[in-house]
């Protein structure tokens, strides 16, 4: 979140957080797990957000984020997030325009699984 907030501040936008950590259903990790099921939301490493921009605090939601005429401040934010090594859902094959994560599920599966186990015991 620090990285995301730093970029947001630099790009003169604020974020309206829609969702962050999500408690998964009754899914239990087995030895083999489909990557598609390893949401970074389940370990608190993803957010869904709308971008608040402009002097009047206009909210840019999913429909807006998918538009072709994004404000420069929003482009700055999206580009900056990606430059910081984070992943924007707008680049997914099935676009998830409000989503940002740190790719933990793909970059460090062992840590993801460890966090998942710990969090399930604590939350
Ligand atoms: Zn998401």
Can you characterise this structure?
This protein is an alpha+beta fold. It has a single domain (2-122), classed as Muramoyl-pentapeptide Carboxypeptidase, domain 2. 35% of the residues lie in helices and 18% in strands. It is built from five helices and five strands. The chain has helices at residues 2-10, 62-65, 72-83, 104-107, 109-122, and strands spanning 14-19, 46-53, 58-60, 87-88, 99-101. Residues 26-36 have low confidence and may be disordered. Bound molecules: zinc ion. Zinc ion (ZN) is lined by residues 41, 46, 48, 96, 99. One of its GO terms (molecular function) is peptidase activity. InterPro entries: Peptidase_M15C, Zn_M74/Hedgehog-like.
Quick overview of this protein structure:
It comes from Rotaria sordida. GO terms for molecular function: peptidase activity. The chain is an alpha+beta fold and 123 residues long.
Number of DSSP-assigned strands: 5
Rg measurement, Å: 15 Å
The CATH first-level class comes to: Alpha Beta
Briefly note the structural class of the backbone.
alpha+beta
Total domain units: 1
Strand content: 15-25%
Largest sheet: 5 strands, antiparallel
* pLDDT < 50 stretches: 26-36
The name CATH uses for the topology is Muramoyl-pentapeptide Carboxypeptidase, domain 2
How much is the average pLDDT? 88
Shape descriptor: elongated
Second-tier CATH architecture = 2-Layer Sandwich
Count of helical regions: 5
Q: For the record, give the distance between the C-alpha atoms at the N and C termini, rounded to a whole number.
A: 20 Å
Helical residues, percent: 25-40%
Bound molecules: zinc ion
Organism: Rotaria sordida
Domain Peptidase M15C: 37-101
Protein name: Peptidase M15C domain-containing protein
GO molecular function, one term: peptidase activity
């Amino acid at each position: 979140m620090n990285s995301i907030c730093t970029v947001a501040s630099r790009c003169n936008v604020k974020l309206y957080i829609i969702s962050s950590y999500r408690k998964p259903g009754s899914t239990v990790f087995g030895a083999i797990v489909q990557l598609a099921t390893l949401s970074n939301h389940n370990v608190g490493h993803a957010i869904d957000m709308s971008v608040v921009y402009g002097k009047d605090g206009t909210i840019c939601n999913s429909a807006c984020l998918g538009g072709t005429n994004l404000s420069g401040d929003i482009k700055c934010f999206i580009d900056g997030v990606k430059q910081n090594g984070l992943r924007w859902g707008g680049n997914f094959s099935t676009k998830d325009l409000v989503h940002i994560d740190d790719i933990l599920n793909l970059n460090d599966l062992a840590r993801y699984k460890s966090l998942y186990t710990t969090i399930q015991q604590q939350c």
